[in-house]
């Protein structure tokens, strides 16, 4: 909740411009990090995805290996059956029994052929999956090394700027508390709607900073009088005169100089 203490318009302008300078400095610090935090996050997700996929394939390889073992056991069982049925053919009493046993032998031989075919296919699948796993391991190692370097880079930047950013974030909240709710809401709305985050700008060479639209002389006089809060009709930004801006910049530079 904003401070209810009544401030003069000039005090409000100074407070809102100070807040802008602090927030702009925070923006600069975060811009130094740039896309690095997101890049690290994306790499972490990618490494996790590659690890999961690798482990899944390893599990599939183990499962196929178990299936091959089961097929080999089944083949041995079929061979044992063939021996049994062949042995029984020696003692049959008629052609019907002999033919029945022959069909059993043929069936067992077909089962062996099918199992051998399946083993061959599974071995081919194993070779393919092993190639995929090896490729994933190479990618995982490369991505993990890249992630390690990016984390070190980010940690170094964070070590340099984290303390200052924390200090300035606290100062931003402190200065924001001095500003009335309506003005603070306008500042926040403008700041979030413009690309450079500048909601409060000074007059430079007859125009608002960063703009090519000339401000009428009468409006410039009103801004310099510091009697009311005036916004740029083109951008909506809050305007302050160059003298006030210079004074507040010098004050804020002393604050920033602590770091």
Short synopsis of the structure:
Helix content is 76%, strand content 5%.
Structure in words:
The model has no long low-confidence stretch (mean pLDDT 93). This protein has a four-stranded mixed β-sheet with strand order 2-1-4-3. It is mainly alpha-helical. The radius of gyration is 39 Å and the shape is rod-shaped. The protein contains six helices and four strands, in the order H-H-H-H-E-E-H-E-E-H. Helices cover 76% and strands 5% of the residues. The longest helix has 82 residues.
Reconstruct the topology from this structure.
Layout: H1 9-33, H2 36-89, H3 95-176, H4 181-193, E1 200-204, E2 207-208, H5 217-225, E3 230-231, E4 238-240, H6 242-256
Parallel strand pairs: 1-4
Antiparallel strand pairs: 1-2, 3-4
Helix pairs in contact: 1-3, 1-6, 2-3
The Cα radius of gyration reads 39 Å
Topology pattern, helix = H, strand = E: HHHHEEHEEH
Termini Cα gap: 29 Å
Number of strands: 4
- Across the major sheet, the strand order is 2-1-4-3
Mean pLDDT: 93
Question: Largest sheet, described in full?
Answer: 4 strands, mixed
* Backbone structural class: mainly alpha
- The fraction of residues in strands falls at under 5%
User: What overall geometry do the principal axes of the alpha carbons give?
Assistant: rod-shaped
Number of helices: 6
Percent range for helical residues?
over 70%
Low-confidence blocks of residues: none
List keywords for this structure.
6 helices, single chain, mainly alpha, 76% helix, 4-stranded mixed beta sheet, 259 residues, rod-shaped
